[in-house]
Amino acid sequence: MADLGDSERLQPSLLDRLTDNSPGEIKESARDQIIDIRQLRDIVLRDLGWMLNTVNQEGEINEDEFPYAAASTLNYGITDIAGKKAAEARPYELERMIHKAIERFEPRIVQGSLEVRLSTTVEGTHSRILFNIHAEIWAQPVPVEVFMRTELDLASGDMSVVKG
User: Fold this and answer.
1) Residue 115 and residue 31: Cα distance in Å, rounded?
2) Which residue in 20, 41, 77, 137 could disulfide with 54, CB within 3.0 to 4.6 Å?
């Protein structure tokens, strides 16, 4: 397969480009300016983990009165769910919230490819819920499929995102 041209190579996100992983180096190497598919997947998983562990301001912003504010980064993340039991949390509502947050704030996911499915509650406890996430990440020359498992700990509100 022929090498990809400069415009077709995958570039790190702005955050990753601004992060100095080699502070002792004066100049960044050309190798640090592009990423491969594996790195892209890892970066997207990391960023989704950050987003799903961020509490949004959904209850504070009137969506009917301020629709643009409600759809902005003021609402980055998901509603606070810490301390709820699985029955109180309404798992299918959580599934919808996760889907909405990813769709709204993760532009690397190909539109229409995202699926978030309730998997199960973890046996022996009512404080953990599992979700399976499937999507395509935009990449050149073709999008890349990614499967993730998300475990939500209702007691702490922490959500872990791992490769599925």
Assistant:
1) 33
2) 77
Full pLDDT tens readout for the chain, 164 residues: 445 554 456 777 788 777 777 777 777 766 667 888 898 999 999 999 999 999 998 888 888 999 999 889 989 999 887 766 656 667 888 899 999 999 999 999 999 999 999 987 555 556 788 999 999 999 888 899 999 999 988 888 889 998 87
- Model pTM? 0.81
Q: Would you kindly state where each structural domain of the chain is located, as residue ranges?
A: 6-163
Q: CA-CA distances (angstroms) from residue 7 to 40, 58, 74, 108, 139? A: 16, 38, 32, 16, 12
State the residue for tokens 């050309």: 30
Q: Which tokens go with 161?
A: 């995102």
**Parallel, antiparallel or unpaired: strands 128-137 and 144-153:** antiparallel
| Residue 136 Cα distances to 101, 109, 128, 148, angstroms | 16, 6, 26, 11
CA distance 50 to 159: 9
3 state SS of 92: helix
